[in-house]
Amino acid sequence: MAQARRSARLLASLKPDAIVASDLRRASATAAELAALTGLTVLHDAALRETYAGEWQGLTHDEILEKYGEQYSAWKRGEPVRRGGGELETEVADRAAPVVLEHVERLPRSGTLVVVSHGGTIRTTIGRLLGLDAYDWEGLGGLSNCCWSVLGEGARGWRLLEHNAGTLPEPVLGDDD
To answer: Which of 4, 93, 133, 177 could hold 30 in an S-S bridge, CB 3.0 to 4.6 Å?
Structure first.
């Protein structure tokens, strides 16, 4: 909760226009911290839930390796694997990316949307929004608790401005504006 409160203080200074969050407990509680500071209402959406990992749910890394070693290895090689019979990463992006786009469409011009979700869902959604091949999504890396990524609109679509950040975004000066 201390991490969520710290992040909320920083993100509140960006003056977000909307907050949408997974309806799962940790994401919902994290979003509530930001809502308390901004006065915004959190809109919850089950499509922002973490990847469903079927029989892997609740297992430790060692237990997964012991019981599902080959499936785990195939997944780490970038093969499309239904971990434990659960969702493919592309299916997670299929359900989550449209939610983000729907809420972005509702923003005022130059508005800010905060999406509070889970590491795997965030990574696959960013990969989809950036138009990356699903095999390359792993290259984005994970997110630490209560850290964030910043996307903005570029001349040719979405652009990743910061990833796994824990401080306020700094403008990048470049020759492509």
So the answer is: 4
